[in-house]
Design brief:
Elements: E1 2-9, E2 16-23, H1 32-38, H2 40-53, H3 79-90
Antiparallel strand pairs: 1-2
């Protein structure tokens, strides 16, 4: 699974909105993204629970955030930011 985000102008009165595209990285897909979308609220809740209860500290670890073999060495990842984003998603309408 992989993702891509972009910022686009939003409605009047707001500056931008962020759009996230989540997709299978396997040719023709393997069903992971479809399963995630079909159970979105539960997945967000479980991801937040996993990150919150992980005792690795603020940096994250392969159990809760980082990916072994990441081509960017997980440099752009932040456990605290990830948890904040999950909370925003969980509390959005």
């Amino acid at each position: 699974m992989s993702s891509y985000t972009e910022q686009r102008p939003a409605n009047i009165g707001t500056s931008h909105r962020t759009i996230a595209y989540i997709f299978d990285s396997v040719h023709e897909g393997c069903g992971t993204t479809e399963a995630l979308v079909n159970d979105w609220d539960n997945c967000v809740e479980k991801a937040l629970e996993l990150a919150t209860n992980c005792d690795c500290g603020d940096m994250g670890c392969p159990r809760c955030l980082t990916e072994i073999g990441c081509p960017e060495s997980n440099d752009g990842l932040s456990k605290l930011l990830g948890m904040w984003l999950l909370e925003q998603i969980a509390n959005s309408p």
